[in-house]
Amino acid sequence: MRLSLFGSALGLACLLGSSALASTLIVHARVVDGTGAAARAASVRIDKDRVVAVGKLKPRPGEAIVDAKGLTLAPGFIDAHSHHDRQAEKTPEMAMLAAQGVTTIVVGQDGESALPIGAYFDQLTRSPLAVNVASYTGHGSLRARAMGQDYKRPATPAEMAAMSADLARDLRAGSLGLSTGLEYDPGIYGPPEEVVALAKTAAAGGGRYISHMRSEDVKLDAAIDEVIAIGRDAKLPVQISHLKIGIVDRWGEAPKILAKLDAARAQGVDITADVYPYGYWQSNLSVLLPERNFEDRAAARFALTKLTTPEGLRIAVFAPDPSLVGKTIAQIAAERRADPVETYLALTKQSEAYRSAHPEVERVDAVIGSAMSEADIAAFVAWKHSVICSDGMTHGLHPRGFGAFAKILRVYVREKHLLTLEQAVHKMSAQTAAQLGIAERGTIAPGFHADLVLFDPARIADRADLEHPNALASGVSTVWVNGAVVFDKGVPTAARPGQVVRRAGWRPGG
């Protein structure tokens, strides 16, 4: 990137986010504006935190000029399902996101969120990150607040009223809507009618619904049917989180699943999905045992045969014994000279006991499991109504948090030609904003926030893998968030211009 200034020191201050100058002009860029339209040569003018002009533009006196040298300028990418808020205070520069071109993360996923969201938003306003943050309100968090530790049952009418009131309050604060994690405690114990009732509260407040479904494997069809029913009965847009087929016996059935979703859409249900481009997931140990029976050898053997393998299940977090992190169940079993099934059950019971004894520990365990086929992932990525997510974190052993968006551009655009560059950018920007109810972001157009990424389509690539999960992506030149440069030439800046992103149509005071 070459920078020429009509005001030298003042111009540099503007480029880095100061209001000392009126504007910055990016010239010689190939603009992919996020709408899906073909790339075109254009200049883009930024004034404070907004794009103010796009086209054939002449420099103004005193304006900072950024020479893009023919690189692609796109809207900053929006991570539709993110956990990068966890421990974000340790890495407020969010280099793992900026290096991929991500400028907005959507958190509060899998039924887990800050409560109340208004207080969390106030905290972000006082101590902003380098990226923008939007959030759902978590069903599991609502349940925990209303029911405490006595959650392995349906909620009472009084508890339902409390959850609904908390959700309505969050919607007034700008929450995107309701998220569920129906394979996790405590959400797993919430019956469908409870979820529908809360979804209706979300709909009444202008919100949406997003779900880590009850099953991504054995009961996949029933789980999808539940999401469709929620969309139909509550009359709100619904999205399936990290759509996948996580059982070996059903690999190759992506077309069948997509046909079901298309049929629901044809019947008036606004159902969509987000996808990450990896054949392995990250979750907790107990997720493979939906009945939560930690003595069930048959269920554990099924899980280690049909849902993953001992060689494919790797410990990512294990508070009771951190020395096990990075090892597979097969490796631990070999060290103990034990059966992998018994080893898995023993670790799960050890984790549950530790969780009970240490309720203050936020994350007791996590595992990475190989489970999906590449053909199914590609089909889900290509679906017209899917957008891209990372499901990633700022720390951890799954590479998706550091590579998902760069991998889409490397694998599915450059190598496999599954998507055009314009289609991929659309999925990662304007389409995401539309599906999640985010206004004035995701498109390079006058009046939109100046969230921008300048990158080389021929070079952008993920570098993170299971052996190097925290390696930054490459090929991104410069990233602007709300008009301020947060990443330049492979290095994060000191700027922290991230804003709270509230639901489209939100107004102060509800």
Automatic annotation (TrEMBL):
What Gene3D superfamilies does its record include?
A: D-aminoacylase. Domain 3, Metal-dependent hydrolases, Urease, subunit C, domain 1
GO annotation (BP), single: N-acetylglucosamine catabolic process
> Which sequence ranges form a coiled-coil region, renumbered to this chain?
none
> Which segments constitute the Amidohydrolase domain?
65-487
Q: What UniProt keywords are attached to this protein's entry?
A: Hydrolase, Signal
Q: Which domain of life is it from?
A: Bacteria
InterPro entries in UniProt: Amidohydro_3, D-aminoacylase_insert_dom_sf, Metal-dep_hydrolase_composite, Metal_Hydrolase
List the GO molecular function terms: N-acetylglucosamine-6-phosphate deacetylase activity
Question: What residue range is the signal peptide?
Answer: 1-22
Q: Which PANTHER family match?
A: N-ACETYLGLUCOSAMINE-6-PHOSPHATE DEACETYLASE
- Per the similarity annotation, which family is this? Belongs to the metallo-dependent hydrolases superfamily. NagA family.
Protein name (database record): N-acyl-D-aspartate/D-glutamate deacylase
